[in-house]
Amino acid sequence: MPFLSRVASAAARRAPIFVVVTTLLCGLTLALGYANKARCIGPEYDAEGRSTPNYGVRITRDVCYTDIQFLWLGRDVNEHVFPYVHGGYDAARGELYGGAVEYPVLTGLAIWVAALPSDTDGAFLTISAVLLSIAGLLSAAMLAWLAGLRSWWFALAPPLVLYAFHNWDLFAVACSVWACWILLRAARETGGIDRVRPLIVAALALGLGAGFKLYPAMFALPVACWLAAGAWRPGRADVGRGRRVLAGAGFLVGTGAVFALINLPFLIAGWRGWWASFQFQWSRPIDMTTNTLWFWLFRPYSNSGNEVVQDRLALAATIATLLGLLLAVGVGWLRYRRDRVYPWLPVCAAMLAAYLLLNKVHSPQFVLWLLPFFVLLRVRAGWILAYFVADAAIGIGFFRWQYLINSRLPDTTWDAFSPQAVLIGVWGRIALLIALFLVFSRAAVVEVPAPAPPRPASPRPDGPGAALDSAKGF
């Protein structure tokens, strides 16, 4: 097929036409994602702007639930309260109040901006979807330039349909992709960084990403190890270990400084409301909504009402997560001994797999965090498709199961398929994350295209080379 051949050729060259085609395809995927969530909008609204009728039934029965629409009420979003400044966390009731939300400050700002012109949960979801789509389209464009046809694992990914507008994660995803785009482009010729500017921009991207969702901050550590292991080459020359370590430490400090500067105004204006988001996440019980191994492995002792076990599981999850992240960094150093290059991007992906496996919360939309690494690392299609299937099983099965429970219909694994799908998804995802930790740690990075050589100037019609060039053309 000539069109597909041209697309494949453009993909191999990362031509602008291919980047545009990929971005348009991603736009279609995002449109499907919005259409899926919009099934829960309206058609009528109550006095508070909540969709009616039967909103509470439809979100689980029709599998169109989204945190964006749901949080229109309960966080003073509908009252257009500026976040964090006057809020706090009521530990006795386990609730946020006064405009505090359970997310980092840039996500809180995005929520406030989208809510300002909105008077219903439907309008709030629509405006949020527009803002998130910009982040998704930019991510698809950068991935298309970096990875060619592999970028379609992002642009056409089923998780984009299910979760692009489930929460506000696409902002952090775009920042992570931006950091990778900067570093991979800067290192495409020498395998290292010879200028300060790319490091400043990458640190800015990761710091901003952490301002939306905390996870991009952890990627600064593998990049710092990469710089310290020899990637810092000012003037394209090898430098001493001390200067390389200093460059790595500077990158860590820079990422942390960006995150700190973003948070500082909120900490000063209302530290209680700012701290409330961390209190809420730490106090969140490990229950069916978290869908991690900590809940399912220790059933029935992990019930949310068992406070002693809950505290111990939260502490165990925190320690295990930190150890998992350090293990990924250590495996990277083992690979460095063989290849003499620290594999920062594979380590970032392995760290993310460890985090998703061992953290106490694994929300459905977290699969979006993995999509860029499925693109940028040479991972076999079987692993990616298997993860998509397991993720869809738990993502769809969970809400259908909640519908059965809330409707007091038969809801055991002997009576319905949805609880079976959840168990298949939970344990399948756990097994796949363990395997992906190893797969990511060994994976190769996609080849980044080198800059096109400059075209020679055309000779003047009457110049000395005009006749020769004319003959070549003939």
UniProtKB/TrEMBL annotation:
Record keyword Ribonucleoprotein present: no
GO cellular component: membrane
Pfam families membership: Mannosyl_trans (PF05007)
Stretches the record annotates as Disordered: 451-474
Membrane-spanning intervals of the chain: 96-116, 123-148, 160-184, 246-268, 313-334, 341-361, 381-401, 422-445
Record keywords, A-Z: Membrane, Transmembrane, Transmembrane helix
InterPro entries the record matches: PIG-M
GO biological process, one term: GPI anchor biosynthetic process
GO molecular-function term, one example from the UniProt record: alpha-1,4-mannosyltransferase activity
Compositional bias annotation for Pro residues: 451-462
Regions annotated as coiled coil: none
Protein name: Integral membrane protein-like protein
Species this protein is from: Nakamurella multipartita (strain ATCC 700099 / DSM 44233 / CIP 104796 / JCM 9543 / NBRC 105858 / Y-104)
